[in-house]
Amino acid sequence: MTWLVTGAGGMLARDLLLRLAEGGEAAVGVDRRALDITDEDAVREVFDDHRPTVVVNCAAWTDVDAAETAEPAALRVNGEGPRHLAVLSAKHGARLLHVSTDHVFAGDAAAPYRESDRPLPRTAYGRTKLAGEHAVLDLLPGDGYVVRTGWLYGAGGPNFVRTMIRLERERDTVDVVGDRCGQPTWTADLAERLVALGAGDAPAGIYHGTSAGAASRYELAREVFRLIGADPGRVRRVPTAGVPHAAPRPAGSVLGHDGWAAAGIEPIRDWRQALAAAFPALRDCS
To answer: Which residues are catalytic?
Structure first.
């Protein structure tokens, strides 16, 4: 089995490649300089060179606000790029795992979104990521996997948790939005599930790769301060309206995890347990 991981410069891909190396798997990571997934000829060359049996697409346009004024450019990365990967995966008989986002939903549901719920993105970013999902599932009905995630953090790149660790040192108080709910997810936990999907016999389709439980950014920041040993009261709750964005943010982007159970794979643990396990490495690199 040979793994090809795109977007290898990102924190999820880094944890995935580390996990594969620890498991003795043959894996090739390509960052944006090594492979522009919007270039179909370049994708073809990489497939011909490495002959992957499992492809994990971690490459993406992730600037949510910038996508509002550059949707065609975001679509090339988030929609056309995955299509190129799907076409070549089908040609080579490879399994394709495509990392997507909770932003494909409207973010206004009272209950966690199920894998089967109808997407209704409200942003350019969400629309472009949904286009990538369709490409993978349509072209690879038996070997295409869409893994939706959100609120990722890890030691391999900038993220909210590492920012809070830094701000605790620099400021007396920190203002954090308290009226949006999501699922903080450690990239190492998600990487383990990607390995299970790529190497196992789980059915193709949609999976929700987020931690169990839910929290607001405010609650997450307070937990970070608690783990540091600082006073969580130094974190002050502010409304989303006080932090303007070009693209609207979902008020509730909580995902359900029925797909893992149906595939016989343990869902990701509670976000508080994961954060405590990740914290030593996060603190050392922040």
So the answer is: 125
Supply the range of the domain harboring residue 13: 2-158+185-213+253-268
Q: Is the residue at 40 inside a domain?
A: yes
- Are 168 and 225 in contact, with CB atoms under 8 Å apart? yes
Q: What is the CATH number of the domain that holds 66?
A: 3.40.50.720
Q: In this structure, is residue 221 part of a structural domain?
A: no
More confident residue, 37 or 253: 37
The domain tally of the chain equals 1
Tell me: the pLDDT tens digits for 127-181? 999 999 999 999 999 999 999 999 999 999 999 999 999 999 999 999 999 988 9
Report yes or no on 273 lying in a domain. no
Q: Are strands 95-101 and 54-57 parallel, antiparallel or unpaired?
A: parallel
Tens-digit pLDDT profile for residues 57-99 = 999 999 999 999 999 999 999 999 999 999 999 999 999 999 9
Supply the DSSP string of 117-179, one letter for each residue.
SPP---SHHHHHHHHHHHHHHHH-TTTEEEEEE-SEE-TTS--HHHHHHHHHHH-S-EEEE-S
